[in-house]
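Journal club side-thread
Mid-discussion, someone asked how the predicted structure for our own chain would compare to the paper's figures. Pasting it here so we can look after the session.
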Amino acid sequence: MTLLTDERRPPADCTTMAEVRQGVDALDRALVAMLAERQRYMDAAARIKQDRAAVRDEARVEDVVAKVKAEARAKGLSEAIAEPVWRTLIEGCIAYEFEVWDRLRRQP
């Protein structure tokens, strides 16, 4: 049995549901941290984009989804999981970016 650096067992080494749940919980914490960093990039995008209409870029959405699907295939993640998760993530990020864009440019 090999423990990973965050004290979770690799899935193939799990023998109990407690070990599985510990691994899932550790990954969830890591995902939240990465999503928080992604959100900070949305803050930067809202600050940089001068035109509100530039917040939603359909070509960029499709580019991101295509890249995610390719990475999912490479890493063994089902595209049926990856694509809807990222489309939901992207829509949430766009809504968030609109809020930040508006807040940054609100007249006092």
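Post-session note: Helices lie at 17-48, 58-75, 79-105.
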